[in-house]
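Good day; I would like, with your permission, to put a structural problem before you. The record follows directly beneath this note:
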Amino acid sequence: MTLYTDNLSGTALQAELDDIRRRLGLAALDEALRFPQYFQIETVRVCNARCPFCAVAQWDKTVPVMPDPLFERIAAELAEHADWVRVVMVQRAGEPLMDKKIVARVKRLKDAGIRRVTMSTNAALLTEAKAVALLEAGLDEIMFSIDSIEREEYEKLRVRLSFDTVMANIRRFFALRNRLRPDFLIRVRGVCFLDPASSHDRPRISRWLHAWDDQRLPHDRIYFKRPHNWGNQHAFDGVPPYEEVFHPCVLPWSTLHVTTMGLVPLCPQDFDARMSLGDVNRDSIAAVWRGEGFARVRRLHREGKRGEISFCRGCRLFDEDAHLEKKLDALADESGSDAPLPAGARVGSDLSLPPPASGGGPGWGDRNEAT
């Protein structure tokens, strides 16, 4: 990755762009302009939690739920490109289970031919009836956001939520999935404020990772992500200062986000679309994706000038080598820790990146996560 001005050159930046092309599985990067392959559709922007590391208090909540005509407009255009679209996540800034129409909206996307429909949830509202309905609607994967299996610590991080309710709901969903749809992917993801290199923290990390062993299936993913500062908008004690970076990010070529208002923000960090790149109430998704806003962002990233965009300055959330997964494995190999990690369990940054063309590496769908 191009992290220093000494390494900033046309050759280095082209190598970074070639790597993005590889990650997207494209023969040429310009193919990405056809249509986004990944989406985060925000059907609701309210939340039942008040996590201190989240910017929920700063959100514009004037349109709490996406209107039906707007959702249908989006779904209809996605249907026209269903052969190209890889993943649609029906969550962005809010808790999706607060959308009373979320089951119908998942079904609409599946009926439109979308290959993978996902969501991230804090699970507090995941009743048995809702769980069964989502599985029957065709949801392909779910991510549970739970940062600790210690009640006191959990309720400090997930303010307003009940640890016992959340744990019961997650465990019941595992059981239902194992019985009804064993091919369904479950991710358990926590925000990690612990140090995997610390002999004090490692046992706590391991206990969290192993807590799901009795119900997880081999294809499930259990992992942590690091906290972040929401594109330099939300200061939090557990987030270290960002350092300058210069390499291009994958998102301007891969992913489009839509708020409940129909605005297209720069990325998940731009929770209120302060850098709006378009409005799908007025324009098609394809027109926005190929429009002047995205073109300017891509140009700045191509030229090593991403720091001119405040949300991009210092952000490495979507870099493959920013993940802690390999680092944690190396520490385990070196230390011979008595708290080994289960297969498939990792500590990493937010992993909503498209997988490499080989099909390996982290899956998509873990990107946002106010929940």
User: Anything to note?
Assistant: The chain is about 30% helix and 10% strand. The radius of gyration is 20 Å. The CA atoms of residues 50 and 159 lie 5 Å apart. Residues 325-371 have pLDDT under 50 and may be disordered.
